[in-house]
């Protein structure tokens, strides 16, 4: 399990990096949201194709594509990616993060309850502490959310939760991720064609989109699919609350800024809550 948790941390770091790539590309309007989503998914599919061929030593074809992944997972992935990109045109970073992760937590917790799996008191307490720490971290950045942005980011969070839940059944993480990304490119291409009048490209925007797709999304999501079968739904959900903490820490390091007292307390609460969830889950299984 130490290996699983270590790999999970790498996943969270990839997700945190992805948030920066998206912010730099879309915040500066270096690229439009639909082109960003298409390039992100396409470059992710290409990266995963190369990784899959190197790992499996077999040529990828349509037969293998039909065997792995699913259209449901691809639909969830494309809805998440496109809605996320467009939503950040209407929401600031803090509000967007709060809406996104709230939707993820509620969806995954609700699905767990629907399956008849009841989290222990320790898991519930840990989740509450972690979420409180996360809210405390982003609170200064919160503002009244735009309705369209709120709806899109909520849809993005639900779609990401669905993609995560589907991944818990993955037995070939790289091939499943490659197949899902390849199918999702179809949806992103259709969205780009429908919104062709909004196309806005620049070299910087394309570079950030490729980095987001090939590194943070392609490699990060494949790694996430490899650890999900070893995590409980509650664990997988609450771990993702560490992403804003890691992103804020990376931002402080890159800007050589001192960490604020708010960040320290928020980090302790968020990470402490996550550790409590993990410890409670292991105790329940013992």
Automatic annotation (TrEMBL):
Q: Which SUPFAM superfamilies match?
A: Multidrug resistance efflux transporter EmrE
TM stretches of this protein: 35-54, 70-91, 97-114, 121-141, 147-166, 178-199, 205-224, 261-279
Q: Name one GO cellular component term.
A: membrane
InterPro entries attached here?
Answer: AA-Vitamin_Transporters, EamA_dom, EmrE-like
According to its UniProt record, where is this protein mainly located?
membrane
Show which residues constitute the signal peptide: 1-16
* Keywords from the UniProt entry: Membrane, Signal, Transmembrane, Transmembrane helix
Where in the numbering of this chain does the EamA domain appear? 148-278
Q: Respond yes or no to whether keyword Membrane is given for this record.
A: yes
Q: How does it sit in the membrane?
A: Multi-pass membrane protein
Q: Where in the cell is it found?
A: Membrane
* Pfam families according to UniProt: EamA (PF00892)
Q: Do you know which PANTHER family this protein is assigned to?
A: AMINO-ACID METABOLITE EFFLUX PUMP-RELATED, INNER MEMBRANE TRANSPORTER
Spell out the protein name for this chain: DMT family transporter
Query: What species is given as this protein's source?
Result: Alginatibacterium sediminis
**What lineage does the source organism belong to?**
Bacteria, Pseudomonadati, Pseudomonadota, Gammaproteobacteria, Alteromonadales
């Amino acid at each position: 399990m130490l290996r699983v948790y270590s790999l999970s941390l790498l996943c969270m770091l990839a997700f945190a990096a992805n948030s920066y790539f998206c912010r730099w590309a879309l915040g500066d309007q270096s690229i439009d949201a639909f082109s960003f989503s298409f390039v992100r998914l396409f470059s992710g599919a290409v990266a995963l194709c190369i990784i899959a061929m190197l790992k499996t030593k077999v040529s990828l074809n349509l037969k293998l594509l039909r065997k792995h992944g699913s259209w449901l997972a691809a639909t969830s992935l494309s809805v998440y990616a496109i809605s996320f990109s467009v939503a950040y045109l209407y929401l600031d970073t803090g509000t967007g993060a709060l809406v996104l992760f709230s939707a993820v937590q509620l969806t995954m917790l609700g699905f767990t309850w629907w399956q008849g799996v009841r989290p222990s008191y320790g898991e519930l307490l840990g989740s509450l502490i972690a979420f409180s720490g996360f809210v405390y971290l982003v609170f200064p950045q919160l503002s009244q959310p735009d309705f369209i942005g709120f709806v899109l980011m909520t849809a993005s969070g639900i779609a990401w939760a669905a993609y995560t839940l589907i991944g818990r059944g993955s037995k070939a993480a790289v091939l499943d991720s490659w197949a899902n990304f390849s199918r999702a490119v179809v949806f992103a291409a259709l969205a780009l064609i429908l919104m062709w009048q909004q196309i806005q490209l620049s070299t910087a925007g394309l570079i950030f989109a490729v980095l987001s797709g090939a590194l943070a999304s392609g490699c990060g999501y494949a790694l996430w699919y490899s650890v999900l079968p070893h995590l409980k739904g509650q664990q997988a959900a609450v771990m993702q609350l560490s992403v804003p903490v890691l992103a804020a820490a990376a931002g402080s390091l890159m800007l050589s800024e001192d960490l604020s007292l708010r960040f320290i307390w928020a980090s302790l609460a968020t990470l402490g809550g996550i550790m409590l969830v993990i410890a409670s889950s292991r105790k329940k299984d013992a």
